[in-house]
Amino acid sequence: MDTGYAGRLAPSPTGALHLGNVRTFMIAYLRARSRGGRLLFRMEDLDHPRDKPGADRAIEDELRWLGFEWDGFCRQSERRAVYREALSSIRDKVYPCVCSRRDVESAQGAPHSGEQLYYPGTCRGRFATWREALAFSGRPPCWRFRAPPGEVRVEDAFAGEFRQDVSAALGDFPLARDEDGAGYTLASVVDDALAGVREVVRGDDLLPATPAQTLLQDALGLPRPSYCHVPLVVGGDGRRLAKRHGDTRIAAYRAAGVRPGRIIGLLAHSCGWAGADEEVSLAELLERFDMDSIPRAPCVADAAFLSRLSV
Questions:
Q1: Which of 77, 42, 25 minimizes the C-alpha distance to 194?
Q2: pTM for the whole thing?
Q3: What's the first-to-final CA gap in the chain, in angstroms?
Q4: What are the tens digits of pLDDT across the range 74-118?
Q5: Which of 281, 239, 286, 236 minimizes the C-alpha distance to 262?
Q6: Number of other CB atoms surrounding residue 135 within 10 Å
Q7: CA 279 → CA 34, 247, 262, 303, distances in Å?
Q8: Residue pair 52/20 in contact by the 8 Å Cβ criterion
Q9: Tens of pLDDT along 166-204?
């Protein structure tokens, strides 16, 4: 039993908690508890323009309703001084950038699909300070990290080996749109290290972002956690679960009278741990937990799958 294990749940209050979120959190939860480890809860509430009022409280309440428990809690919005200090320690490795997403998209040398864009270093050496960049553009610039050349190797506990030359695939990547460095990439790396997180369990859509985070960990002198990227829940069309696939919010199921055990049971069934219509709790799943039984393909929440949660 690895009692030194520490994992985390890290939701963002940019929307409602849905089945896809819960499946990933369920795996993270059982991974930690099956090893006798700690599980930390971190509200990643730094994306203020996208944050939904009350979403943070709703997410916490719904996770508790489903049976989740955790051993520590923090909000990133209350930790800005920590991120300021971290950014200050690597000022020689970052620079302010005024390029918009449209600017970066127009600089692509080939048609682009997906969320990751290559940045060619347009603003490298362009501005002496963040304030100078702000005065030039009239909008807050972002901090970009100078990505060194060379392949980064990530050995993922579920997805296997992943290699990427960040400088060639992404170029200099953004850290934050805040003078003090409070942004997702920097904040999550710093928080994981300071909380002693040993393994990050999350959706495999974030696997391509992991080498960049690894470079940042090395620059900050922080330990590298292990990673475990698991398949997402997608709709019948193969796309990431969204409103177009129907209402899969936990709040909607709860309001309709669906019991927590049915939701956990269906998601456990998708991992090979329960029968299709079995009601089961997280505590009961501990003795059934087996990473090897999780299908390698995404979990498809098509009409037949979702119908099992109808009242």
A1: 42
A2: 0.93
A3: 40
A4: 999 999 999 999 999 999 999 999 998 888 888 776 555 456 789
A5: 281
A6: 11
A7: 20, 21, 5, 20
A8: no
A9: 999 999 999 988 888 888 899 999 999 999 999 999 999
